[in-house]
Amino acid sequence: MSTPKILILGAGYGGLLTTLHLQKKLNYNEAEITLVNKHNYHYITTWLHEPAAGTAPADHARVPLDQIIDMNKINFVKDTVQSIQPEERTVTLDSGNVLSYDYLVIGLGSDPETFGIEGLKEYAFSIRSINAVRQIREHIEYMFAKYKNEPHRTDYLTFVVGGAGFTGIEFSGELADRIPELCQEFDVDPSLVKIYNIEAAPTALPGFDPELVSYAVDILQKKGVEFMIGTAIKQCTPEGVVLANGEEIKAATVVWAAGVRGNSIVEKSGFEVMRGRVKVDEFLRAPGYDNVFVVGDCALIFNDEGRPYPPTAQIAVQEGEALGDNLAALIRGEVMMPFKPALQGSLASLGKGEGIGMVGTKKLFGTSAALMKKASDLRYLYKIGGVGLALKKVRL
Ligand code: FAD
Ligand code: NAD
């Protein structure tokens, strides 16, 4: 019998943890494991709001894959997935290469959810990759430089953040922290800078604990963020945004942080999806395909009350670990274990040294939440790269 081929698409949280667990569990001759990723590095998506605002270098959120993966055991292919042909058991890459598989793992992450809102794809930025956040940071700095040459253009100093979910809140906090430094560097009067966080729902962080939400809003307001709650953005233009009530905000920088959907490649490849996500079974298999597994933001799983779990790194990691173990079992003819996430809580940063969190039933505010978030980051770094990576990357 020939060696089974396992093909993993995406080296994000889900795909990376699947790879690392397979690497640990299987011997060299038990399976041919291939990992395809756009870049030769893994990025820590949960930190991307920092380099986007410019409070941390983009490089800090990158981890070269050859530092964490045993390249003798895993065939790494740096390429972009173009399409999946599940009937033929093949994947086509941008290079034109076609890879075949016996088992497929889809971990291609998400795309921004634009809800079909006009102009977002053309004129708004999204915090979604290292390259995307480099562009946001450069653009923000360029707007300060441009303002100095066209001082009537206060829209260059106006920043709109669309959505007050966790991404919008974390980025707003980080941006507010960066503004004083930029004002000093470019000799700009800080009172001219505006950061609007615009949220369609009747509250920031809908569904989160109201006391923690109110703490977060208060901290960000004190840093200079103006919230427009219960206000939907209905259009993005080259000049800024148009709100549902018809009001226009002139802003040269719009960062869209109003949710995600599964990577469009999955839907385009013919899988049945809801908001781009495949409703997987208890073994993370795609309906109709016993050999296709989906992890992370491309997968849709439900809790006991029938409500979908939100797409988070926490769940992607757990799915990757469980799937790596299950695939090893499958290869050895052993039984697979059903997957159930064990949620540990939610932690969000509000800029340097500030945060909010809910761990079990315990609410965390300010420094204790920020420290807990650092501890959770450390745990993740240790998991993927041991003590060395944790020590190299941690920022206190
Ligand atoms: P990703 O981590 O996005 O990885 C996808 C991988 O696939 C990437 O390596 C990408 O390069 C690659 N890829 C994509 N398309 C292709 C292609 N066509 N070909 C080849 N490779 C491709 N969640 C939490 O639980 N806690 C947090 O604190 C938290 N903070 C966040 C902060 C921010 C600013 C953001 C934006 C998100 C945050 N999240 C957080 C959510 C979390 O980051 C995602 O749920 C998580 O990254 C999903 O993991 P994934 O493996 O599905 O995809
Ligand atoms: P989200 O879906 O959690 O929040 C998006 C927000 O945008 C919502 O509050 C929504 O009401 C609002 N919105 C939608 N359309 C709008 C419009 N037209 N105008 C104005 N507001 C609009 O999305 P997210 O914040 O990008 O998070 C994506 C996922 O990543 C979530 O599952 C989240 O939990 C996770 N995440 C977690 C953390 C953390 O744990 N620290 C940080 C970032 C993201």
Automatic annotation (TrEMBL):
Pfam families: Pyr_redox_2. GO terms for molecular function: NAD(P)H dehydrogenase (quinone) activity. The keyword Flavoprotein applies. InterPro entries: FAD/NAD-bd_sf (IPR036188), FAD/NAD-binding_dom (IPR023753), NADH-Q_oxidoreductase (IPR051169). Residues 5-320 form the FAD/NAD(P)-binding domain. The keyword Oxidoreductase applies. Its cofactor is FAD. Keywords: FAD, Flavoprotein, Oxidoreductase. It comes from the Bacteria. Gene3D superfamilies: 3.50.50.100. One of its GO terms (biological process) is aerobic electron transport chain. Belongs to the NADH dehydrogenase family. This is NADH dehydrogenase. The lineage of its organism: Bacteria, Bacillati, Bacillota, Bacilli, Bacillales.
